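Example record

The entry below shows one chain as it appears in the dataset: sequence first, then structure tokens.
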Amino acid sequence: MTIAQQLEQKGIQKGIQLGRQEGRKAGKLEGKLEGKLEVARTMLQNGIDRNTVMKMTGLTEDDLAQIRH
């Protein structure tokens, strides 16, 4: 294997590693948002006003717009 091929292989491995790390990070964030949305949905279904839900969950009005209740 030439030096160029070795460097290319190392670059590919590094790219795969970084991609996996970013994927895990994105997955965690997405999971947290889904959890907050589920809690907010339950709160809204139980008559808690939107401002209180936003304050308690940290969600925005745009986030709450995703909820169907």
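Notes for this example: The mean pLDDT is 90. Residues 3-64 form one domain.
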